[in-house]
Amino acid sequence: MDLMTGLRRIMAIAPVLAIALLLPPALGGCAPMFFHPTRDLPAPPGLAEGSLEEVFFPSTDGVRLHGWILRPPGPPKGTVLFFHGNSKNLGTHVNAVLWLVREGYLVFTFDYRGYGKSDGTPDIAGVNLDGAAALDRAFHIPRGGGGGVVVVGQSLGGAIATYAVANSPRRLEIKALIVDSAFAGYRRIVRDKLIAGIVSLPFAWPGSWTVEDGYSPERWIGSVAPVPVVVIHGTKDPVVPFSHGERLFRLAGKPKGFWKVEGGGHATALLLPDVRNRLLEFLDSALPPPLKNLPSPH
After folding, report:
1. What is the spatial distance between Cα 272 and Cα 265, in angstroms, rounded to a whole number?
2. Residues 220 and 163: beta-carbon distance below 8 Å
3. What angle do CA 188, 189, 192 make, to 5 degrees?
């Protein structure tokens, strides 16, 4: 075999070798891309006023999940259920919504399976079962204030929250869904990430088709209506392209709103004073006044 013949044969099998070598690390059965949990839980946040309650509850398939209920000092204006992003655990992400406790809201946040103190191992189907269980649990929190439940999800949490709300048997009791920096689809975001790499570009479409897509928010956000939907996305998001937020807004039913954060990054909007003020105004309009004369938690 001469040199040129050998090179031609190598070039002919190169795409097959590339797929074999590149797709497992890039996709890894989805888990490495979508889930980056840690078990070590930071110390619970200090609340100058109010209280923190640690809770355990079963997922839809029986996996034990862990969560925090953060109560304001007085009767809550309502319950905010928070779905966090794909990295670490609830102790890292709670600061995104901790300020809502100071504003009088009860905040319930939880860890998906495999995160923090929750049992199990994360996968796309499993974490969506967890989201459904957490939403059901939010309606059974004692002394929730009677104002209703608002669901807030960031990044991966926005995708899980969308599926949970759309499929909840109590959907019409949910006061609003707020989705911050969420991707439109599991398959779509994998494709975008593969397209971004020069070497992985040829495998973007075939690679993305290996990903479970039935839980993607772009398939479900249209079924959330008539629950109000707010989509928040930064124009400079380096993790989830701004186009994903635009797509989710287009597919959502009315009533809906799109909060474009000019120059904003990934899941940073709730750190901004103007976005926080806008959210407080929205919550005031979405939630009825809290029930009066409720006993304060002990």
Report:
1. 11
2. yes
3. 90
Within a domain: 292:
no
Q: Residue 52: beta bridge partners? A: 70
Query: Could you tell me the CATH number of the domain that includes residue 136?
Result: 3.40.50.1820
Give the global pTM. 0.85
Question: Within a domain: residue 199?
Answer: yes
In a domain, 297, yes or no: no
Average pLDDT over residues 179-192: 92
For 123-143, b/e burial (b = at least 16 CB within 10 A) is bbebbbbbbbbbbebbeebee
Percent with pLDDT over 70 in the chain: 80
Tell me the per-residue pLDDT of 68-80, one tens digit each, with 9 for 90 and over: 999 999 999 999 9
Q: pLDDT-based confidence at 32, cuts 50/70/90?
A: low
Residue with tokens 């690390």: 25
* Identity of the amino acid at 202: P
**Residue closest to 35 by CA, chosen among 132, 136, 151, 120:** 120
Query: How buried is 65 (Cβ within 10 angstroms: 0-12 exposed, 13-18 middle, 19+ buried)?
Result: buried
Beta strand 174-180 with 229-234 is parallel
How far CA 15 is from CA of 10, 22, 205, in Å, comes to 10, 10, 14
Report if residue 251 sits inside a domain.
Answer: yes
How far apart, in whole angstroms, are the C-alpha atoms of residue 233 and residue 245?
6
State the pairing for strand pair 36-37/79-83: unpaired
Residue span of the structural domain in which 95 resides:
3-286
- Quote the number of domains for the chain: 1
